[in-house]
Structure formats: structure tokens, C-alpha cells
Amino acid sequence: MLRFFDRREFLRVSLATASLPSAAQLTNASESSDRVPRGFGSAKSVILVYASGGQSQLETWDPKPNAPLDVRGAFSSIATPSPGVQLCEHLPRLARLADRYTIVRSMSHRDLDHGSATYLALTGRYHARISSNPLPSPTDYPTYGAVLKRLRVTNRFAYEAVHLNAPAYVPFLISPGQDGGFLGREYEPLVVGDPRSSDAVLPGLTPQAGLPAVRMEKRKSLKETLDNYSDRLAGDQKLADMSHLYRQALAMLSSPRYRDAFDLNQESDALRDRYGRHRSGQSCLLARRLVEAGVPFINVIWNHSNRGQDADPTDPDVYGWDTHNDIFDAMKTHLLPRFDESFATLLEDLDERGLLDDTLVVCMGEFGRAPRVALEPNFAGNLPGRKHWASVYSIVLAGAGVNRGAVLGESDRLAAEPITERYGPWDVAATMYSALGIDHAAHYTDAFDRPVATTIGRPMEALYG
Fold it and tell me: What distance in Å separates the CA atoms of residue 263 and residue 286, rounded to the nearest whole number?
């Protein structure tokens, strides 16, 4: 069936696909993927915990206890069960769990601002305006969950992807890289905000108590009748998008299993306390429930603002990892204790339930922090902090066959540059797709059936075996 576009739609998609790879490039990429990479198809689900704001490698996964004081900072490091591996002293629970994950200490790229670097982290592609803070655009590349839906539909859940504690703000405007981009709204993930109140998690998708089953069936019948005229929607993208959203909403209304997956009240108070009763902690718990429900891709935003503390320094829920000044107070008091309890509990809970065997967990930010502690005059705060640093930073991966108790890559003595093989967000993208059984060198098509490379990276095979 031909799909017709108005002039605006034609320009939108044409601009979005102007820099797509050529057929020859795609052919070469396909030829290089004949060998099945290690870790391929090892995961049923992926949980991406996105540390928004730029998590400091020196205060988390790559401390430098022997560096000068203005490099190593105010914190000490502690030993872990993995020989020779140390973490920040304020991550005691994660330090005890170091034999369950791999730390990658040689992540690197060249984008130095939050908006475009968030786009890079959540799409695996550089933004056209590198090191900037652009708004979302219909010409953007789609986020991971949107691509996943374009490549395949598993039918295990009403949505292929769910974003929790979302969207990510920089610091109070929505960052690009979190939607369907040039694929359109049909491919966008379900976005859930604060998950702590079950009644507000899915507003409008809880059946009314007084709604008889027969009325619900009549509504379904009416929707099916309207769908019979769906061929008429081909010329109107807005109506087509709306029809798809209605289908998803009806699926949620019709299925107690789908709705129950979002009900945190079904969990014990003890477990909810263990995750932490804050937004990010409860989002991690909800992520585990969505894995059990069969959602292929879950993105937890930790926290929802990269630097909300500027607006309200008394509310720990709005603290992001963008710690320019006052870094040590912010990390010790607000960020590290909560992160330690929620991320550690997520790994433990998945492992105890046998879910970590086929769930890939990734924790990463958009970049790291500078190796030198200094006071920045253009930011709030009276004590020194660390500026943006993309030359080297650290991430963590666990589950789905990833080595336990390992370190991949190494930074120099100041945590300033990699001294081993560099990895980028594009390689993380390829690793996640590959773990879900998707060829990283494959392609999907845009609205004009033009090929788009799934990713420009390669799976990080050294994580396995």
C-alpha cells in the first residue's frame, strides 16, 4: 500500500534521513556480521539505568587513591571481592557485589554538553549539534526502544519499551533522544513519571469501578470497527499515530496482567524499603516487575533532572549527577547513598529471582567528570567540584552472560584518558541489541523504505566468556 505525505511530513522525513548510510556501507556492515558475536541472544530484557548528569568515575567506579589530592578528591576507596578492584567508600553495598558485574573503565567520546550527550547515550549517535543543548526534533534518530519496536514486535507486552522516572530533563527542559524521532509516535516508548503512587503511574488506564464488562466489550467492538477503515489513515500521519495509541491504551485497559505489572503495592513493604522509597529506587523496583511481565527494554532515568538541585537543594529526589561545585557534599549526602541502595538491590533482586541470567543490566551516564577538582565561578555552590569530561568515564554491565567480577579497559593514573581500547555509546548500543538477538549490522527502513543502520558500533565481546 502506498503511503502519502503532505509537504511538511515529506520535509521532516527527508531531512531526518539525509545522512543515512549508503547501500554499499550497509552491505559491508552485513558482511562483517557473518560471525555470531559472543553474548548474542543472551537476554530476554535489557534494563538501562541512565545516570543523568554525568556520573563521576572518580567518585564511583574508578577511584584513584594514589593520585594527588586535587585529582583523587575527598573520598577514600574500599576493597571489593574482585582482587585489585576498588570502589568509592560511599558505595559499600555495590562494593560487596562487585563479583556480579563488569566495570568498563575506558568509555570515551567527544561530546561535552548534557543535551546532545544524552542524545548520544540514548540513541548511540552523535547529535548534529555536538556539545549543545538542543530540543527534541522530529528529525532526531529514534531512541533504542523505538528501534527495537521497528525491528521486531514480540507481543510479550503491550509496549516494547518503557521509560521510568522519565523523561530526562536538562535540567528543566526535555532532552532529545527519548522518543520515536523520524520513525514517528507509533514507535515511542511508554513514559512513566514518578512511580511511587500506583494510582498515578498509569493515569487514565485503570478501569472505572462502575464500568460493566459488557460496556467494555462494546468499546472494543467499536474500536475494531474503526480499525477496519485504517487504510484511510494512510494519508494522515496524526490520525495513524492516534489510532496506534488507542490500540495500546485498549490493550492496557483490557489486560489485568499488563496493569498489574505497574502496581508496586503488590510488593512487600520490606522490599520497597530495600530499594528505597525515592523516585529512582521505586523505578528500579518497577523495572524488575516489567522484566517479569516480559517488557524487552526498560530505561530507568536516575534522576529525572540532571541538575534539579539548583531549583531545590533540599529535595534529594531532584539531585542529578551534574556536580560542578559542592560535588563531595552532593555525592556523600544525596546521590551515592541512594544510588548504592537502589542499584545494589536491583542486582540482588534480579539475581535472587533467577532473572539476572537472561536480563542485561547497563548503568551509564552521558559522560564522566574532570580529573581535577576546582571551583567553577559560573555555577552555584561555594566548594570545588568537577566539570564535564568525556575523554574517559566508566559504566557497569551485569547479567545475560556478562563476566562477573571483571574490569574491562583501563584509564590512566589520573582517570583522564583511556590507556586501553576505547568504547563508545555506539558500542553499548550494539551490545544491547546483540544481547536481545538483533544483528548489530542489520538495518531497518524509514517511512520511505530507505535503509537505516541499526547501530554504528560493535558488540563489546570482551564482556563475555
Answer: 8
Q: 297 has which bridge partners?
A: 46, 161
Q: What does each C-alpha distance from 194 to 109, 191, 282, 318, 401 come to in angstroms?
A: 31, 10, 9, 12, 31
Cell matching residue 245: 495509541
* DSSP letters spanning 182-246: GG-GGGPPEEE--TTSHHHHSTT-S--TT--HHHHHHHHHHHHHHHTTGGGGGG-HHHHHHHHHH
The phi and psi torsions of 175 (rounded to 5 degrees) equal -80, 150
Least confident segment among 89-93, 309-313, 386-390: 309-313
- CB-based burial of residue 319 (10 Å sphere; 0-12 exposed, 13-18 middle, 19+ buried)? buried
Cα 221 from Cα 216, distance rounded (Å): 9
Q: Is 280 exposed, middle or buried (0-12, 13-18, 19+ CB in 10 A)?
A: buried
Q: Give the helix ranges, DSSP H, for 32-143.
A: 69-72, 92-96, 114-123
Whether the pTM exceeds 0.85: the reply is yes
- Going from the N-terminus, what domains does the chain have, and what CATH number goes with each? 7-201+267-463 (3.40.720.10), 203-261 (no CATH)
- For residues 145 and 161, is the Cβ–Cβ distance under 8 A? yes
Question: Pairing between strand 86-88 and 77-79?
Answer: antiparallel
- The tens digit of pLDDT for each residue in 32-59 reads 457 899 999 999 999 999 999 999 999 9
First to last CA, the chain: 47
Residue 246: all three cell numbers together: 488507542
